[in-house]
Amino acid sequence: MPECRPVLKTLLTERWGLRYPIVGAPMAGIAFGPLARAVTEAGGLGCIGIGAQDPVTRIADESQIASDGGKLRFGIGLMEWAVRLRPELFDATLEAKPFLIALSFGDVAPYVERVHAAGAILATQVQSRDAAIAAERAGADIIVAQGTEAGGHTGEVATLTLLQVVLEAVKLPVIAAGGIASGRGLAAALAAGACGAWIGTPLLASPEAHNSQAARDRVVAARENETVLTRLFDRVQNIPWPTQFPGRALQNDFTKKWHGHEDAAANDPEAMTTFRRAKDKGDYAVSFIYAGQGVGLVDRERAAGDVVRDIGDGAEALLRKRFRELFV
Ligand SMILES: Cc1cc2nc3c(=O)[nH]c(=O)nc-3n(C[C@H](O)[C@H](O)[C@H](O)COP(=O)(O)O)c2cc1C
Fold first, then answer.
1. How far is the CA of 119 from the centre of ligand 1 (A)?
2. Which residues' Cβ are closer than 6 Å to ligand 1?
3. pTM for this one?
4. Which domains does the chain have, with CATH numbers?
């Protein structure tokens, strides 16, 4: 069998032609061109994450790197509420000609026609049944069921529960996101009916990620019960995230003191100065590292390609073994 032939058969391997049914999540500030490219080269689909405050030129620049000068496929992820504030982010995304555009945390309806006219697939992350149904009605091509285990901004429902709810509610293909960090996690999502996994946290300790050694060290050291779902970091940075989407980050001294007292932190000059200084210095005892509960499975620094291959090959081996064991 040739090396590049997909073994797990899902929409992502059969129709998109990926080796593994794995999407590297768009992560603003972290998933730039090098990480996206590494995920794609390993047989997944790598995405670039664009944040609300990113320079618009980042989209073309990182797309060049992700696609290796136009040779490889890649995706770009945007926050819908950020696009409403800065439509130029969406225009530049269309111009970059990605294979997939992910518009999350808002209504995709106003964007469907332009994404399709650009020849891209429209994905959207949802955190509830109603949001999944609305996205299907609006014309999205694929739904990402994003559970609360996920790193970054997310909802309150666990991945497996949400996945079951969404699979029952829509006809569109569904990718699972949140806490999938090993072959076991991908196998579970596929067995439940997902067509793939959308992984962010497992890539946070990869040298291709746009973060520091100190951040990667903290990711490697953290356990699955050392994250917190909080609005604290949005509040102290004055980022207008819709309040229904808190962010999951590693717990640290700052969250231990101020989580649950976000307004008080934002109105405390000393807390604000401490935070700003820590952010500038990269001091993660106070500043933020967004990461999901799957951080408990990230136990060493590894190339992104190895992470993708391990999750994909692990799922394949486990599914074969489990089906032999479960069916007599
Ligand atoms: C550091 C970080 C930044 C993220 N930034 C974004 C983003 O800019 N846009 C987006 O749609 N999702 C973002 N996410 C969420 C991911 O798309 C995805 O849902 C999540 O990483 C999946 O769960 P996991 O972290 O458990 O793998 C981010 C996640 C992390 C960990």
1. 24
2. 25-28, 30, 49, 51, 77, 79, 102, 104, 125, 146, 149-152, 177-180, 198-202, 290-292, 294
3. 0.97
4. 11-210+293-326 (3.20.20.70)
Question: Region 9-22: what's the mean pLDDT?
Answer: 97
User: Which residues have CB under 8 Å from 20's CB, separation 6+?
Assistant: 6, 8, 12, 13, 42, 43, 44, 308, 309, 311, 312
Ligand 1 centroid to residue 50 C-alpha, Å: 11
Question: How do residues 101-129 score in pLDDT, each as one tens digit?
Answer: 999 999 999 999 999 999 999 999 999 99
Checking if the pLDDT of 2 tops 80, the result is no
- CA angle, corner 181, sides to 176 and 186, nearest 5? 50
Shortest-distance atom of ligand 1 to CA 29: 3
